[in-house]
Design brief:
By secondary structure, the chain is mostly helical. It contains 17 helices and three strands.
């Protein structure tokens, strides 16, 4: 038997094709349905980017208005979802756990078929996260406002105040930036589930589980904590060196695909700079830049040739913090953006209809023979 090629992390394996996004890890480029990320992220509304992914074209004015309305109408949660969130909040579970539990209920309320499920998931994820966050903090959920756009309404439901135009643009740019990223772990999870001919709600619930892990979507909180712990630019080197000496990973750096700076880091860094400048306080932003510079240099010293560069999470932390979001909301907010990409991949996978089932290299024992419990002793 010829020795199979085993790729435990599937590096270098092309597991399918997609028209949704292209990641070029060596050039540091991200294409979203034909558009460079830099073109889309800071210009489009989240509804426009979602429409683009689902329909492979940007909507005209009428299509956009209809699409916005149709999503806005779906924002309200089924009673069962809200009751669940109330019960979970009493146990003070982390928000990603609550989102995972609630995601599974989002097929309720007359939602039927792939298109309905995709729309309900995208429309309701912000409502779930915001309602749960408020319940967790002893406050009543704020009902969605259909007059506000998707991104602005998310901040409104979190804070109970209509955000400024700059804040709404900041969160919109963030949601667009993370909306899709080819076959990342959570997206692949969603595609694997869809490929069994299961439903979109099941696929997205699985994807939330994958995103929760610190090696995927869980890094921005720790990345920001690190910047706060460092506190002053001249303390960065000793702090980071000590971490690397202990064999710890620096959160917000390194990527499976990007071997240059993650293009999303640039987009988010620009958005964060704009926001901090508007607030008139660049101190944290400047500190983060200094930490980044030192971290990249030290990673090259400790892991030469690995090309460990800044990833999306580092500036996610800075931008979302600037928007007033607490670190525990960073990964759930990532999910609020990525759910549009997940659903687009599910729809694409559905059209393909091929079960995903890789092989494996068996390295267990051979030739064993059965013995009864009595024969096996204690
Ligand atoms: N800090 C320190 N060392 C790191 C590192 C980091 N952030 N990222 C990778 N490395 C090291 C690994 O320890 C490994 O060293 P070794 O070969 O001496 O054992 C080497 O670099 C290669 O890493 P590898 O584990 O093969 O990379 P990967 O492709 O599996 O991992 C990540 C990619 C993202 C999981 C990894 O870079 C990481 O853990 N980063 C921090 C978490 C993070 O920011 N995640 C968000 C990603 S968007």
């Amino acid at each position: 038997m010829t020795k199979p090629i085993v790729a435990p992390g599937l590096e270098g394996v092309i597991a399918g094709s997609t028209r949704l996004s292209r990641v070029d890890g060596l050039a540091g480029e991200l294409i979203i349905a034909g558009y460079p990320l830099e073109e889309i992220a800071a210009n489009a509304s989240f509804e426009e980017t979602t429409y683009l992914l689902w329909n492979d074209k940007l909507p005209n004015a009428t299509e956009l208005a209809e699409f916005r309305n149709s999503l806005a109408k779906l924002r309200t949660l089924p009673d069962a979802t809200l009751n669940l969130l109330r019960a979970v909040a009493r146990e003070e579970a982390p928000t990603m756990d609550a989102l995972r539990m609630a995601a599974g209920t989002l097929s309720l309320g007359g939602v039927e078929g792939d298109a309905d499920e995709a729309a309900a998931l995208v429309a309701r994820f912000p409502t779930v996260v915001a309602a749960y966050w408020r319940l967790l903090n002893g406050e009543e959920p704020v009902a969605p406002d259909p007059k506000l756009g998707h991104a602005a309404n998310y901040l409104y439901m979190l804070n109970g105040e209509v955000p400024s135009a700059a804040q709404a643009r900041g969160v919109e740019t963030y949601l667009n930036t993370v909306i899709d990223h080819s076959f990342n772990a959570s997206t692949f999870t969603a595609r694997v589930i869809t490929a069994t001919a299961s439903d979109l709600v099941s696929a997205i619930t699985g994807a939330v589980g994958a995103l929760k892990g610190p090696l995927h979507g869980g890094a921005p909180g720790p990345a920001l904590d690190m910047v706060f712990e460092i506190g002053q630019a001249d303390k960065a080197e000793s702090y980071l060196r000590a971490k690397l000496e202990r064999g710890e990973r620096l959160m917000g750096f390194g990527h499976r695909v990007y071997k240059v700076r993650d293009p999303r880091a640039d987009v988010l860094s620009a958005a964060a700079a704009k926001m901090y400048r508007a607030d008139g306080d660049m101190q944290l932003y400047d500190l983060a830049r200094a930490v980044e510079e030192k971290a990249v240099a030290l990673l090259e010293e400790y892991k030469p040739g690995r090309n460990l560069q800044t990833n999306v999470e580092f500036y996610t932390a800075l931008l979302l913090h600037g928007l007033g979001l607490e670190t525990a909301l960073f990964t759930p907010t990532f999910a609020v953006g990525r759910v549009a990409g997940w659903t687009a991949h599910c729809l694409e996978q559905r059209a393909e209809g091929r079960l995903i089932r890789p092989g494996s290299d068996y390295h267990g024992g051979l030739g064993r023979t059965w013995s009864s419990v009595a024969e096996r002793g204690n």
